[in-house]
Amino acid sequence: MTRIRILDSIGSFGSDLLVIAAGILFLTHRYTGWTIIYVLAVLICAVLPIRLILNIHSGLRRANTGTILLIVFDFSFMMAILTRPDRFMSLVHIFFGWWMFGHGIISLIEFQVLVRDQQPGTVSRFFTGIIFLLVSAFMLSGRSLSVKNDVLTVTAAGFFLIYGVLGFLFHLSVLRRRQNPDLPSWSVSPPILLNAFFPFQVFISLKQLKDDTRLSSAKPAEEPDLKVFIYMKGKGPEIFGHIDLSYRGTILSYGNHDPQSRRLNGTYGDGVLIRADEDLFLREGINTEEKSVIGYGIQLDETERTALEKRIEDLLSRTVPWKPAAQLAEEAGEDMSACRDYASRVYRETHCEMFKFSKGKFRTYFISSTNCVMLADELIRNRYLTLVDLTGIVTPGAYLSFLNTEYLKPNSKVITRTLYETVPSQPSVINTKKL
User: Which of 189, 131, 121 has the alpha carbon at shortest distance from 155?
Assistant: First the structure.
């Protein structure tokens, strides 16, 4: 094991033990635990606005209405709990109550998804949602402050202990798989509500990435078979919103692309899988959709290629062809330009194939569970194939953080890093050589 991997393992196990210690602290010294939370809340509410102001001043972030409101809210909340510390727990009650309410609603929607897709776990998901809603009603009503504090303390202790233990076991399994790759892999699932309200939110500066990758522009001797593409906005601290896979020049992209089935403001609907030429699809994304894309190439051996091809074949075996409005118009001899939904725009530019799932997982798209990241995970991170060892919450941002770190390591499987920007003709390659 290399020195870098040893340090990574020490850091991972250390953070897990720290989380477990926090859980024990809430059980044994609750006042100390909540005091630490109070101090952290004050520090976060002080540091975050200052950081946002500095980013605006340096041009890394726009001074839009949302950013200004966030700065005002953070400062206001900080002043409120500094001047009246006794109000802090009451505010925590309100926050936790609404958090549990959202968690309950998300759980019941996921229950419906599991029923529709005929997946296991429906009973537990249903009762989980009901319990969360009952706890939410209790936290948002009544005056039993001591009981509410007890509920909060036990919940905090349980969350830290469970998440810390699961994280420790996960990192232990990663360590064992490095010594024995045939062992099955598993991962820690993110909290449902965090995954729903902040599904893909991680920040990075494109300017900083360019500065880091401008050292070389040479290509490796061999193009990678597998590429992971992460999509983002083109300005300021970037918010990641989508992830695609490409195998040997063919992109697989999953999302809620049927406008006729979209519900809940586009967060729920029929899952649609797009299979398209990589170059055409990327060109459409960065030029028509005005997106920026970071791509990472992963080197595969023959066993990994065979396993990945089998996973893709199994996935496609559960699909049936689906035609967007533009394709139907083309086949009817009508003008496709009148069809302006996303699937139609992609078809016009790429003449790709589109599919819906006839059964099983991914038949229904839901932003907190069966989304584009989970489909990528299904293909490249499972008990048969572990090309990415992710820890924590699995989002496009988590993928980028892992792949970027691996790219900078010697002898890793991640051998290329490419930045595609919005340009009139073709993507501009910032760097494709391993540093």
Answer: 131
Is 184 in contact with 393 (CB distance < 8 Å)? no
Enter the tokens of residue 373.
């990241």
* Residue 377 banded pLDDT, cuts 50, 70, 90: confident
**Residue whose pair of structure tokens reads 């992460």 in the numeric block:** 230
Contacts of 184 (CB under 8 A, 6+ apart): 383
| 34 to 18, 24, 39, 149: CA distances (angstroms) | 16, 13, 9, 10
- How far is the C-alpha of 91 from the C-alpha of 150, rounded, in Å? 15
**pLDDT tens sequence across 93-105:** 888 899 889 889 9
Distance of CA 199 to the CA centre of its chain: 5
In angstroms, the CA 302 to CA 305 distance is 5
Burial 329-352 (b: 16+ CB within 10 A, else e): bbeeeeebeebebbbbbbbbbbeb
Angle at 94 between CA 24 and CA 164, to 5 degrees: 25
- The CA-atom distances, in angstroms, between 130 and each of 125, 136, 137, 367 are 9, 10, 11, 20
- Structure tokens belonging to residue 115: 């029923």
Q: What share of the chain is helix, strand, coil (3-state, %, to 5)?
A: 55, 15, 30
Q: Indicate if the pLDDT at residue 68 is higher than 80.
A: yes
Report d(CA 320, CA 155) in Å as an integer. Answer: 44
9-33 pLDDT tens trace: 677 778 888 889 988 999 999 889 8
